[in-house]
Amino acid sequence: EPSALILLVHEQNGSVIPERDFQHRFPRTYGYLKRFEQVLRQRRDAMVQGMYRRGLPFYAYSAVGDYTFAPWKVVWREQASELTTAVVGPRDAKPVIPDHKLMIVDCQSQDEAYYMCGLLNSALGRFIVHSYAVAIQMDPHILDHIRIPRFDPGNPVHRRLAELSKGAHEATNKANDAQLRQIEEGIDEEAAKLWGLSEAELREIQASLRELEGEAATEVD
Question: What pTM does this model have?
Fold first, then answer.
């Protein structure tokens, strides 16, 4: 759930609005930010300090790109014992900007986001991550290890994964665990179709994943 409104002083391509241009286009906003210049310049973010050394304005943010403005995003926690992804969509026609400790994959449509989220949350996706990831570090390079075909709205498996993933979000919001488990089973079956696995192979991966996640939970405790 969004907790704040953010004044983002970047163009939609991620570049910082130049100071003179900002003064001309948004004089009152610039005047407001100017009151906090000294506080902003004291930020301890190493990336921000590097931006200052390159001559960028005092109000610049770090880690902003075109992905920041994407209407739909798939996110997951960087610090976690297992991979749990979720879909974030726009609120009041404005993009939601996730916290910097969340990994982001930008998507251009709702269905694409739910499709990708479903595959990453599937038993197969999580099993692959468990096979190489550090116990409590879900790094941003997960997609280098999981082959996710580009979303095709004409592909029935892709569409079904998007539908099921959306249903899983709704069941989670309603705390309907029984419905969620049923949907997750459907996601696993569709993911197995997409990646060409047999039912026997899927069941073996599901069983192995339960063991791996149990071990990970014990280590974290």
Answer: 0.85
